[in-house]
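Hi P.,

Sorry for the delay on this. The queue was packed all week, but I finally got your sequence through. Input first:
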Amino acid sequence: MMRGLSVKVAAVSLIALAAGCVSRNNEKGEQARAEYAQSLGDSIAAIERQIDSCNNNIGALRDHVGELLRDFTTVANPREAGSYIIMTPFKGRYPLKSTGLLARINDNGQFELIAALSGKAFDQITVNGPSVTASSAVVPHDQALNYRTASLTTVSFIGAEADSIGALIADNQLNPVTLTYMQGRAVQAWRIPESDAKMIAYTYQLYSTQRELNRLERRVPMLHEKINLLRAHKDK
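Then the structure:
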């Protein structure tokens, strides 16, 4: 009789213990779900702050682009493949007729440098500031981006290397900057006049501001999409 009672007591104890474990597990599960929901909420709030920051910067950048564009003109010449933006005082100097360097923004939104050299051929340029140097890519002679007449070679440069030259000139507006025409070796050096350096710097500033504006305008919808995904998880 006592043994049967002991077995019943043991069984009841096991049931109580199991119930306690289930209860504790349920509490832990609820706590984990609450913490996960809180984490999702925190992530959503953080992304909302990023969106607010982006929108504030977009407004400021749009204003800055508008201010810069006052000094630029869009040129659409039917004899050329596409339109481009160039500083208004320099539009009459393109195409170059003698040694020089101009900057413009082409119809693809790319920063473009056009270099010309009288009497000699070249396929690359290097720009030197007081303590920094930047070089373009090599552009082979093909009568498209590197073309020659009897007296003048003109080469157009675009891409990351051209951007680095624009940034160098923009960062050294108060310093002397020298352009070296290259073709495997130095062909000729030319001191960039202050007015030309300022034109290149302003063009690069417009280009880089537009590029950052475009980046932020693409980022905002992506951030909203992230919030939608997080909210969907939170609502499950």
